[in-house]
Amino acid sequence: MGEPAPFPDAVSHTLETRLAALTADNERLTAENVLLRHLYERAPLSYQSLDENGCFLSVNQAWVDALGYSREEVIGRNFGDFLHPDWQDHFRENFPRFKAIGEILGIEFEMVKKDGSTILVSFHGKIGKDPEGQFRQTHCIFQDITRRKQIETALQESEERLLQI
Q1: Per 3-state DSSP, what percentage of the chain is helix, strand, and coil (rounded to 5)?
Q2: Is the pTM of this model over 0.85?
Q3: Residue 145, class by beta-carbon neighbours within 10 Å (0-12 exposed, 13-18 middle, 19+ buried)?
Q4: What's the rounded Cα separation, in Å, for the pair 30 and 35?
């Protein structure tokens, strides 16, 4: 048994060049993955993703911070479980429309925090689809608008009182 024949220099050079390119691509993809993970986890707005049945696939840290639940308490549960009872039917009726239309802008829900208090949130979202155009998941962000709505209500009541004078 002899030693294997050495690669010709041209083949060896081609393989080395290809390996260097693959290594560079891998390093770039790893850096992009880290950047996207940081963006997802450190985003200032709450993010959630739901499956076709309205059950949580993922939430980011801002979502966890806003509502006080751990990810383990959320993933796999239905979004309606985290809504004030007055809003649960609204979600059940309108989620199929969201999936059909593919986008929502400024939809408001009252959500229940882990401590039992509620916040009013405004959602923006889009439907993610697979390459065949079929539903894959939702991509939604929300902002807590509780304080803004309280100020708007107080201002309106103040204006009404002034008009009565």
Answers
A1: 50, 25, 20
A2: no
A3: middle
A4: 9
